[in-house]
Amino acid sequence: MNIQDYPDREMLAIDLANHLAGELEATLLTHDRATLAVAGGTTPGPVFDVLCAADLDWHRVMVLPTDERCVPQDHPRANARLIAEQLLVNRAASASYLPLYLPGAEPEDCLAEVETLLTPALPLSVLVLGMGEDMHTASLFPGMPGLEAALDGDAPVLAVARPETQPEARITLTAPVLNGALSKHLIIYGAAKRKALERAMSLPPEEAPVAAVLDGITVHWAE
Questions:
Q1: What is the pLDDT of residue 220?
Q2: What are phi and psi of 137, to 5 degrees?
Q3: What torsion, rounded to 10 degrees, do the Cα atoms 156, 162, 165, 166 define?
Q4: Which among 1, 30, 71, 209 has most CB atoms closer than 10 A?
Q5: Per-block average pLDDT, block size 10, for the chain (223 residues)?
Q6: Predicted pLDDT of residue 87
Q7: Residue 121 · residue 60 · CB < 8 Å
Q8: Cα separation, 95 vs 108, whole angstroms
């Protein structure tokens, strides 16, 4: 794990976006397609604002969320909405998007269809994660039902998450898919999350799910 500190969040966003663009460009030099999996929420938004303007063959890039709430894609809490509004614009508008949740379906009924589309694109080329102060990442939450199965090295590509602390069910990439990404990045802001990350480094993934993906990851931190 490598931790990069930045003087402010704007510098973090610019530097990380340029780094991600370079990694995607390098992937496209040797592969027909690249796969970019990104966190939702507000944390990566400023990075998307810069990355979307990168001069890449975006039509050869598949974008997907690391996890998704089981709500319509235009719902304010949908990761798909944030990604559509802040990443899949400008030059990046030509990228393809793979949703993890199919609106109107039960979460479990989505898994097979999405896995069929995603599996040929694995391993992920580039992964951008966030982390909560509870040390969850994607929708792998401490203490949630099914966490141990989603952390297992033989876990399927996707899992349904129903954390008791959240208002809706979610679909998430599992730990082996996240950890298997060729390039891994974690964005965290503030002292509280820095302390949570330091704590996670000494805990098992069952207590701190983010610990399952820390090997070889680059952490980008700003106050």
A1: 98
A2: -145, 155
A3: 100
A4: 209
A5: 98 98 98 97 94 98 97 90 97 97 87 93 97 98 97 98 92 98 98 98 98 98 98
A6: 98
A7: no
A8: 27
- The whole-angstrom separation of Cα 59 and Cα 158 is 25
Count of C-beta atoms within a 10 Å radius of residue 68: 30
Cα–Cα distance measured from residue 166 to residue 183, given in angstroms and rounded to the nearest whole number: 29
- Can you give the pLDDT at residue 103? 83
Nearest to residue 60, comparing CAs of 83, 30, 102? 30
Strand ranges across the sheet with 158-161? 67-69, 170-173, 158-161
Whole-angstrom distance, CA of residue 71 vs CA of residue 105: 10
Would you state the structure tokens that stand for residue 155, as one six-digit string? 């876990």
DSSP notation for 125-177: SEEEE---TT--BTTB-TT-TTHHHHHSTT--SEEEE--TTSSS-EEEE-HHH
Tokens of 109: 């009924």
Q: Which amino acid is located at 6 in the chain?
A: Y
Per the CB < 8 A criterion, the answer to whether 24 and 34 are in contact is yes
> Would you say the C-alpha torsion 119, 220, 87, 100 has a positive or negative sign?
positive
Specify the pLDDT at position 140: 98
* Dist CA 66 CA 91 (whole Å): 22
Burial class (CB in 10 A: 0-12, 13-18, 19+), 115: middle
Question: Which secondary-structure segment (H or E) carries 61?
Answer: strand 61-65
Q: Is the pTM of this model over 0.90?
A: yes
